Amino acid sequence: MIRMSNCVSRVVIVLLTAGTLSAQTPAQLKHELDALRTRVDAQQKDIEALKAQRPSGAALPSLESLQLKVDKSPIRGNARSRVVLVEVSDFECPFCGRHVRQTAPLIQKDYVDSGKVRHAFVNFPLASHRNAFKAAEAGLCANDQGRFWDLHDRMFANQTQLAAPLLPSLATASGLQTEQWRACLDSSRKREQIEADQAMASRAGVSATPTFFVGILDPKTGSVAVTERIIGAKPYAVFQRALDEALARKDAQ
Q1: How far is residue 114's CA from residue 104's CA, in Å, rounded to a whole number?
Q2: What is the per-residue pLDDT across 117-156, written as a single tens digit (0 to 9) for each?
Q3: What is the rounded CA–CA span in Å between residue 204 and residue 202?
Q4: Domain map (residue ranges) of the chain
Q5: What is the DSSP letter of 77?
Q6: C-alpha–C-alpha distance, residues 172 and 3, integer Å
Q7: What is the pLDDT of residue 6?
Q8: CA angle 142, 147, 149 (to 5 degrees)
Q9: What pLDDT band is residue 53 in, cutting at 50, 70 and 90?
């Protein structure tokens, strides 16, 4: 566990080494250090929340028994494809944002746009991220208009602007009918679906975001039989191997 004071001290040393402190006013430096403390505190809360969710040493559920329902989830890609990448994510999670910016475009190009794989999104907002739950509601309200992925991309590109008063501007920029979207958001009618996502993901052993599942979709039930679990914002090669193996397995059936 990294103590906040140690982390802040290291950053001050780095700033001194880089010679940037001399160019900053005391007020600017205080602002940067306060922001750093806030980020470290949020990360520590995430760690404690994850510890509470999963006892130390607890085993993950066997893949053979895992079935994920994605019939109500935002999903994109060729409707005839049976291989699905299920992304369990939090709009305020920095690691989720890194995946969306760095790795997801490669997956989208090589597997989703090519028609090989479908991509489903399951919400898992962490309690320590104060804007994440409302952002998840915003995304599902956008999904009612067929614009989930537009707002998904925009929220991940602007993770510091997810406070409720700022969401309408992101919705407008995403091409949404804002009055209809705002009525949905204000009603909180997507809360039940998000809580169902959280419960399903927890049963599947999710305790950190992002977590991904690769599997084969049953189009009649909307259930995904999981073949692989990927925990964390892993490099593209990890997803490439898992998706290629799932495609080969599907073709062999």
Answers
A1: 14
A2: 999 999 999 999 999 999 999 999 999 999 999 999 999 9
A3: 5
A4: 4-53, 63-252
A5: S
A6: 41
A7: 43
A8: 105
A9: very low
Specify the residue for token string 């906040």: 4
Phi-psi group of 52: left, alpha or beta (phi > 0 → left; psi -120 to 50 → alpha; rest → beta):
alpha
- Per-residue pLDDT of 195-221, as tens digits, reads 999 999 999 999 999 999 999 999 899
**CA 94/CA 112 separation, integer angstroms:** 23
- DSSP letter (8 states) at residue 158: T
Kind of pairing between the strands at 75-76 and 211-218: unpaired
Determine if the pTM surpasses 0.85: no
Please give the class, per CATH, of domain 63-252: alpha beta
Class of residue 147 by CB neighbours under 10 A (exposed 0-12, middle 13-18, buried 19+): buried
Residue type at position 177: Q
Rg (CA), the chain: 20
Closest CA to 212 of 132, 91, 148, 124: 124
Task: Please report, for the chain, how many H helices and E strands are present, in that order.
Answer: 10, 6
Q: Which residue has the tokens 């990294």?
A: 2
Structure-block tokens of residue 212:
């991904």
- Mean pLDDT over residues 172-182, rounded? 96
Q: 91, 134 in Cβ contact below 8 A? A: no
- Closest by CA position to 74, among listed 216, 210, 190: 190
